[in-house]
């Protein structure tokens, strides 16, 4: 056969070429259960290529589910590299992405307007807050976040408000609020993430012709990271695969129970057992690891052996031991970051590629200080997650205007920008509008004409602006539309006039570029997504609708400049499925990793351990682990013990870079909270700069620190102005004359190290 099968081991080859139909003419499903780095994703991708190449499937007959948009793109790229196929019409994507596609194609049957918009988690929360306000519900008694969780959880179990048990009075109110939320979303033509799934599940369930059409079309369904599917996703898979019919499709599931890390979001490893029972899959185990050297693999195997709930499997490698896993103990998070920067510098000096270096952390908040370190050392880096491009306030404002062009009934967007930039529409007018919308049971947009007086005039003008922009851009390309809207909505002008608005203006302009790139990548202009047969409707999605869906769905993916070689920063969750030559796992402290919320529950602790297993197994050649004695987190200094996971690693695979001193712990407590103090003075200095025996010395307020002269006339505690970052306060100064650097905490941009000789800083007090 062809070369795509050449570099597979016998078990992988068996899995890739498993006949999808048995000799008796029945479809045959399969489950590949294997540890990290054993080639599961490679097998899945190669199988798609094999099915196509051997004409057992056409590209459009394949449905492949990946865990992130990034993974989907990678899969399509690899497929194109394996053989000349047009991947455009292929259904490869995340559950959310695929469900969005399904709902766009069948919006009428799904009971949605063709212009429906997706609410991301933040939008959903503001929609819930708005709902509580309009119903005059006490949000202390019914916290918006709790309601948000309640709704997501119910939907993930496939339950509508009408299906729910009303229970006591609290539960009863929650269910009523859920119902009011459903009505609000329906009225506004918006769907949240869980709704995408539930709605498309219901679409398939209640519309036999549609269900049968897709069951016949997708004869081959492949699912990566199966261990992290939730109940609804599994039910969706059963429906679309025709489970229980006389002619089900072949489902190829790959997973690793040891890497199940989304139980907190409703994922259930139990689905692997259910899958075995329901689909009677052919089972393949892969035990050879191709990713990591021996010491790294030993560490992973040892660690995960501490979990009890396992399906059981092993990993081995022929790659040799490689370098030992290095463990570093830092005095503070500042010294931890400084050490990471030093290690990275020397790796880069010896030829490492920056994108092959990953820094992983358990909580997003940890990235800030590492970012400072990299920033001031001039090392390009990219943060996955965190404040993503599409989540920035100015971008969300622009998207809200664009959404109103598509769907004026989207009240969340309406409320976001009706008075942004300010156009004299006060809270009172908005309240009047809200009441009128409620009274007439319609959207804000539809309620506006009912308003009289001042509210009627000012809101009427806003409506005319939206209508005018929609008319004006009717024949524009997507980038032209985006450009028109950011100019004519007044957004650009607003930020141009703002003292610190330059970044935001640049981001808005970047949105026009994002639209251009979107059109180029998706090929919207040439062909809308392929329809493969007569009875399947062509996807009804304008480029703008496609772009807005992309903005909501891809907010989780990295948005930094493409192509630049940069160190990769991300949470362990976000690192799933990825691999890097060099990996740092930081903050290995009790309370942080394992996370404090999990420590008192067995299940929680086992999930944290699986998370640590995922983290370790991302490394190919070098693995660095670090923990600190004290750390500033959420405004508090915390003193932590080293993570128990460090103790669970085999001593023979570790190399401690710092002397181990078990006695020097803080009073024996696992976590002590200290009052807030300003960070910075310990940056980059030797570990001893933070006294280990006296807390009071650490808590010195900035104002009591000695004034240092650095030849530039600046002092610690001084307020300063920077042309790009705006106002800030100096936290620390290091070095003299040309070498002098100041650590400045900017109101809007956080703390940054600046070279005084270069930075344009002006004293303002
Ligand atoms: P994870 O559980 O982390 O998702 P995985 O099981 O999906 O891991 P892959 O990412 O598919 O593993 O493979 C890990 C690495 O091993 C990749 O770099 C892949 O190209 C390589 N690899 C897999 N199989 C082989 C093989 N037979 N020969 C050489 N390299 C291989
Ligand atoms: Mg994988």
UniProtKB/TrEMBL annotation:
Pfam families: PcrA_UvrD_tudor, UvrD-helicase, UvrD_C. CDD domains: DEXQc_UvrD, SF1_C_UvrD. PROSITE patterns: UVRD_HELICASE_ATP_BIND, UVRD_HELICASE_CTER. One of its GO terms (cellular component) is cytosol. It comes from Polynucleobacter victoriensis. This is DNA 3'-5' helicase. Its EC number is 5.6.2.4. GO terms for molecular function: 3'-5' DNA helicase activity; ATP binding; ATP hydrolysis activity; DNA binding. Keywords: ATP-binding, DNA-binding, Helicase, Hydrolase, Isomerase, Nucleotide-binding. It is an enzyme of class 5 (isomerase). Residues 660-691 are annotated as: Disordered. Residues 669-679 have a biased composition (Polar residues).
């Amino acid at each position: 056969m062809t070369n795509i099968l050449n570099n597979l081991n016998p078990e992988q080859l068996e899995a890739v070429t498993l006949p999808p139909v048995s000799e008796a003419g029945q479809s045959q499903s399969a489950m590949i259960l294997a540890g990290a780095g054993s080639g599961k994703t490679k097998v899945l991708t190669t199988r798609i290529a094999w099915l196509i190449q051997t004409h057992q499937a056409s590209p459009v007959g394949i449905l492949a589910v990946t865990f992130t948009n990034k993974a989907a793109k990678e899969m399509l790229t690899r497929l194109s590299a394996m053989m000349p196929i047009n991947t455009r019409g292929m259904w490869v994507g995340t559950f959310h992405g695929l469900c969005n596609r399904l709902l766009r194609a069948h919006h009428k049957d799904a009971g949605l307007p063709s212009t429906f918009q997706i609410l991301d988690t933040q939008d959903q929360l503001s929609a819930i807050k708005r709902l509580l306000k309009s119903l005059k519900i006490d949000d202390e008694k019914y916290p918006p976040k709790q309601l948000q969780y309640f709704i997501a959880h119910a939907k993930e179990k496939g339950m509508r408000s009408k299906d729910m048990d009303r229970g006591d009075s609290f539960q009863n109110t929650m269910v009523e609020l859920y119902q009011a939320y459903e009505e609000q979303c329906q009225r506004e033509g918006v769907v949240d993430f869980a709704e995408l799934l539930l709605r498309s599940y219901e679409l398939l369930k209640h519309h036999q012709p549609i269900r049968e059409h897709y069951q016949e079309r997708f004869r081959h369904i492949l699912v990566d990271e199966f261990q992290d599917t939730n109940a609804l996703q599994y039910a969706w898979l059963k429906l679309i695969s025709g489970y229980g019919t006389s002619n089900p499709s072949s489902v190829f599931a790959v997973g690793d129970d040891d890497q199940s890390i989304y139980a907190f979001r409703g994922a259930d490893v139990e689905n692997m057992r259910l899958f075995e029972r329901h689909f009677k899959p052919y089972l393949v185990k892969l035990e050879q690891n191709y990713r990591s050297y021996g010491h790294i693999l030993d560490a992973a195997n040892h660690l995960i052996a501490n979990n009890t709930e396992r399906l059981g499997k092993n990993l081995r490698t022929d790659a040799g031991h490689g370098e030992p896993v290095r463990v570093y103990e830092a005095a503070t998070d500042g010294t931890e970051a400084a050490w990471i920067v030093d290690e990275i510098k020397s790796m880069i000096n010896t030829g490492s590629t920056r994108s092959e270096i990953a820094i992983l952390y358990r909580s997003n908040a940890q990235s800030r200080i590492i970012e400072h370190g990299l920033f001031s050392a001039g090392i390009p880096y990219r943060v996955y997650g965190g404040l993503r491009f599409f989540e920035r306030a100015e971008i969300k404002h622009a998207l809200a205007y664009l959404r109103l062009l598509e769907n004026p009934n989207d009240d969340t967007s309406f409320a976001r920008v009706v008075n942004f930039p300010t156009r004299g529409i006060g809270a009172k007018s908005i309240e009047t509008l809200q009441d009128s919308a409620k009274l007439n049971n319609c959207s804000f947009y539809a309620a506006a004409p009912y308003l009289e007086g001042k509210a009627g005039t000012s809101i009427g003008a806003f409506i005319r602006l939206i209508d005018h922009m929609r008319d004006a851009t009717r024949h524009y390309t997507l980038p032209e539309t985006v450009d028109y809207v950011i100019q004519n909505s007044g957004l650009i002008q607003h930020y141009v006039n703002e003292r610190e608005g330059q970044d935001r203006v640049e981001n808005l302009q970047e949105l026009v570029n994002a639209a251009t790139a979107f059109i180029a990548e998706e090929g919207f202009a040439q062909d809308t997504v392929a329809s493969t047969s007569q009875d399947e409707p062509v996807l009804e999605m304008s480029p703008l609708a496609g772009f807005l869906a992309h903005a909501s769905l891809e907010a989780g993916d990295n948005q930094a400049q493409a192509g630049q070689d940069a160190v990769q920063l991300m949470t362990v969750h976000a690192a799933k499925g990825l691999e890097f030559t060099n990996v740092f796992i930081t903050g290995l402290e009790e309370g942080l990793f394992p996370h404090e919320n999990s420590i008192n529950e067995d299940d929680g602790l086992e999930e944290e351990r699986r998370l640590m297993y995922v983290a370790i197994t991302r490394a190919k050649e070098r693995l660095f682990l670090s923990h600190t004695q004290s750390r500033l987190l959420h405004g508090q200094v915390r003193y932590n013990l080293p993570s128990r996971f460090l103790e669970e690693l085999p001593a023979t695979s570790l190399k401690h870079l710092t002397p181990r001193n078990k006695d020097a712990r803080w009073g024996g407590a696992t976590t002590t909270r200290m009052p807030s103090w300003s960070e910075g003075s310990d940056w980059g200095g030797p570990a001893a700069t933070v006294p280990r025996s006296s807390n009071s010395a650490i808590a010195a307020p900035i104002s009591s620190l000695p004034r240092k002269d650095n030849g530039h006339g600046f002092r610690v505690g001084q307020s300063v102005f920077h042309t790009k970052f705006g106002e800030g306060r100096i936290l620390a100064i290091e070095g003299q004359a040309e070498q002098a650097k100041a650590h400045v905490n900017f109101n809007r941009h956080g703390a940054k190290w600046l070279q005084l000789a270069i930075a344009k800083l002006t004293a303002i007090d």
